[in-house]
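Reopening this one. Same input as before:
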Amino acid sequence: MILFDDVVRTDYGQFDLIWSEDAVGFDGDVDRFFAGQSNGLVGAADPGGLYVHLAGRSGGSKVTIEMLDAAPNLPDPAWGDIVEVSATVPAGSAPHWSTWAGESSGSLGLAAGTYRVRVSAQGRDAGQQNEFAEAVVDSYLMQFWPGALQADAIVRLGSDDARYWHQEFGSRR
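Same output, byte for byte:
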C-alpha cells in the first residue's frame, strides 16, 4: 500500500517522519538521531521518529513511502544506496512527514507497531552536485514492514555522497 508518493520540496535535504504532533524533527543534533548507527542517511536513534537526509539541498526530491506485509526483495541496482533501520510507532501517535522547519508537512497513514524500514536512493551524487537544481535529480523509496527491532544496516553503497554521510553521521557508534 502506498502511503505517500510525491515530490518533496525542502531546504537542506531535511525530511522527517514524526510519530507525535508535539515531537520535533531533526534539529541539528546529529547524535540524537544517529547515535549507535553505522549508516548516515536515516537517523533512527530518536524514539520520536526518523530523519531522512536527502541529497538535494533545495528544490525537489521524489519520495515514495510504502507499507508492505513482509520484507521486499532488493530493488533494481539503479537504486544505488540502500540502508535499513528499525522504528517503533507508539500507540496513540499521529505519524506525519515534515520538511525543514515544518515548511511543508502532511499526515502519514502508518499504524502503531514495530517496523523494519528500508530506504533506497537513486541519484544521490547528482542531488549533491546539483543541490540547488529546480528539477528532481534524486529519488527515494521508503518501505515499511512489520519486523523486530535490530541494528541499522548499510545494504548497498553506490554513491560518493552516501559514503561521505556514512562516515560523517554514521561513525557515531
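So the earlier flakiness isn't reproducible anymore. For the record, The mean pLDDT is 92.
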